[in-house]
Amino acid sequence: MLRLEDTTSQAERLLQTLQDMRQKEELTDVILEVEGRSFPCHRNVLAANSPYFSAMFAGGLAESKQDRVTINGISQHIMGLILDYFYTGILEVIEDQVQELCAAACLHQCDQIREECSKFLLTKVCETNCVGMFAFSDMYGMEDLKYKSQKYVELHFKTVWNTPDFLQLPQCQIAELLSLDGLYVDNEETVLESAKSWLKESQEREQFGLEILSCIRLPHLGTDALKRVSEFLGVEQEFVDLELERQSLCDVDTTGQAEGINEGPDTDSDAESNAQREDTSHLVSQWVPPACRPRLGTKYKEMIIFQTKLVDSDGNHGFPAYEPRSGTVYALNSQRVGTYMLNNWESTDYIVHSLVATPNCDLFSLTYIDPETWDHGLPLHVHCLVRTKGRRQLWRYHGYAFEDENFDLRYSALAYLNEHVYTVKLGLPDDRSQTWHWLYRKSMQDMIGVEIAAPWKRRHWGDQFWEKFEQLPAQRVGTLAACGDLLYFIGDTVFCSCDPDTRTVTPLTLPPEPISKLDERPVLTAYKGLLYFLKHRTTTDRLPTLQIYDPTEGKWRVGPRLPLLSNKVRLFILQLVVYDGQLVLIVGTKEGSWSSPDDYSFQISFFKYGARCWEQADIDPPPIGKYLSDEVLPFSVSCVVAKLMPESLESGERFLL
């Protein structure tokens, strides 16, 4: 018996033969007319590649008997690309035409093209196009793309609600977006303002006032805003009062039950809780227009995190997180690596060296495994405190940035700029053989809508999702900061900017007082288009000064004298942060007395930068000075401002010494 099996080569030969016949117009039996251009084709090839054409030519429609068929709703260029794919299996299209191609593929049921376009567009969703992507994916039923773009709209709602794409959405899509629980807004007034702008965009939209009214969480509006709902939405006050009453009743009767069910237990192993959740699941799935819970973004509070030792003297993990408005101190639990990590090596701890917060309530930490716990030589790792769900707070592993150990752990920094997190590898203090160091970055794309149940079970320790981005001159001390659309790096011998779009590193003028000693921890903070730089040392032989850099002028100037500093006090905090829209200086001092050298007084003070001078900030100091002084890191206490959900944090009573 002779058996010949050559399916791959036969398929390639068949495609090539059909393409040759199409180009020579041999045995073609139909002509597609698109925008005045004729495309001779074979009906069987069209039908084999598309259910749309199969129904057209084999379903008894009028087109099945026509020699020429006019195709509408598609450009001749896109039709040419689709036909080329039908006959060759190859398709190449520039990025600007992918959406048009995807729309045509959806219309003509070209499933493979549609799937590939969807995968490509998923990688291109960003803050500037998420609204348009949402509208596009909703129109063509692309669920994965719609989910991701919706997540971006939720995260960036404060910046996208007044864009042309948002104002051009149809009523059904606007209502869907304004009804989302997950909008990251500071207050419900932002949602009301967005509804007002959309309604005022066209007189024809005035008829949708009542529908939009039901999307606004009226019980969570301030008194002044509530009085203006009728004016903003163009509805009578009577309807506003009725809707407010209905939502208030809904909030009392159903929201509490739904919230409890949605949050669920901390673990899924409790069978009884699971059964109870299943028995009451109908309460959650039942749509009550609208859900009257506060928006997710309003639950977050701006806090100041004091970065101390990861594990304190009593063996507790975590950092103090201070919420100035309420005067409450919380405990931000740190990530701990235990069972299942590194072949079940238990009690392995991470030491945090840098924290950075994103505008959307994510918190990243640059960490390494404590060598005192286990000397296995693993490099720096990056974790992310993802936006919490309910009352659960999770750190998720996001790979490590460096593939070798030739770096100084003390001075590796994190910075956030335009949907990317950046970090830099610095050399060892005594290694002068290196001439370049690498700037790494990681895109936020892969973190939106991704759930990782047990990231510590991963066995892959490669350069996971991190991009080796750009080279920087070798430095032994340094830090990063984002200002405008540029990333700035300052080290002991260099100050430069990096343009992520062009990958251009530009040397800049060093400050009048650059970093001169390796134990100086640099602080670089961006505020209102300027860069504020100071050096913090735990010794006080030379007091630090504030230096300000103006990127537009390319010049440095010396800022006002820093308050509370003298040679008689020991610093354990000297940080610049942006809190509540103001540049705030945090100073922590430890001062002893002549009569009792072991009796120290601790003071934490907050100052805001005013008209070129420091003024006392309206922030009450937390009573955690002694704890911070006792648990200070070798390079002092660092501070970062981040938005956290209080209900996801633990009590910080142990910090109140």
UniProtKB/TrEMBL annotation:
Sorted UniProt keywords: Kelch repeat, Repeat
Keyword Repeat on entry: yes
Ranges where the BTB domain occurs: 28-95
UniProt keyword Transmembrane, yes or no: no
Highest taxon of the lineage: Eukaryota
One of the Pfam families matching this protein, by short name: BTB
Region described as Disordered: spans on this chain: 256-283
InterPro entries: BACK, BTB-kelch_protein, BTB/POZ_dom, Kelch-typ_b-propeller, SKP1/BTB/POZ_sf
Gene3D superfamilies: 1.25.40.420, Kelch-type beta propeller, Potassium Channel Kv1.1, Chain A
UniProt xrefs under PANTHER family: KELCH PROTEIN, KELCH REPEAT AND BTB DOMAIN-CONTAINING PROTEIN 8-LIKE ISOFORM X1
Protein name, as recorded: Kelch-like protein 21
Taxonomic source organism: Branchiostoma belcheri (Amphioxus)
